Structure formats: structure tokens, C-alpha cells
Amino acid sequence: MNSDKIQHFILVFDRHEGRLVEQIDFGSRAKAAVEKYEELEERYRDESYMDIVLVGSDSIDTVKITHANYFDGSARDTYADILRIAN
């Protein structure tokens, strides 16, 4: 994959609600994506049920395949399983 064609996306997923609460497209602006990622990590630092994911890919369609659990709700099921095992 040619680096100038990599698109950057941030996914914010709430495992309690089992849904993607935010999807941000940065295009090829890697620095802006990293800065926003750091901001979101700080914002949600004390909320361990929030997933903040920065992904580089050729398209959002590819991200929806490679990170399908954030789009189809299965990440919530995984989190519930972890909680059951931990308790």
C-alpha cells in the first residue's frame, strides 16, 4: 500500500452501549489524526469501556471489514464475556 494513499480514521466505540459513537475521517492527514487520537485518549482516560482506535487503511470500507467488531456490535459481546470471566 502506497503511504500517500493511506487514509486515517478514528473510531470511538462505547462497549457499554455496544455501538460506535464517533467515526472521524482524516484523509491523508496523519498528524491531525494522531493529535485527535491523543485528545480523545485523554478525554476518555477514566472510562475504560471506551475504545479509541486510530486506523490507517485505503478506505473506510476496508476498515469496516478489518475492524468489523466496531461496526456490527460484536465488540460489546467480547467485553461482556471479559466481564463475566473476571467476576
Primary descriptors:
87 residues; alpha+beta; 4 helices; 3 strands; 44% helix; flat
Description:
With 87 residues, this protein is α+β, with helices and mostly antiparallel strands. The protein has one domain (3-86). It is 44% helix and 29% strand. It is built from 4 helices and 3 strands. The chain has a 3-stranded antiparallel sheet. It is flat and about 35 Å long. The mean pLDDT is 85.
In short:
The chain has 87 residues and is an alpha+beta fold. The protein has helices at residues 30-43, 60-66, 69-72, 74-86, and strands at 7-14, 19-27, 50-57.
Number of helices: 4
Helix % is: 40-55%
Number of separate domains = 1
Unreliable stretches: none
Largest sheet entry: 3 strands, antiparallel
Structural Rg:
14 Å
Q: What fraction strand? A: 25-35%
Give the N-terminus to C-terminus distance in angstroms.
Answer: 43 Å
Order of helices and strands: EEHEHHH
- Topology, number of strands: 3
Task: Give the topology.
Blueprint: E1 7-14, E2 19-27, H1 30-43, E3 50-57, H2 60-66, H3 69-72, H4 74-86
Antiparallel strand pairs: 1-2, 1-3
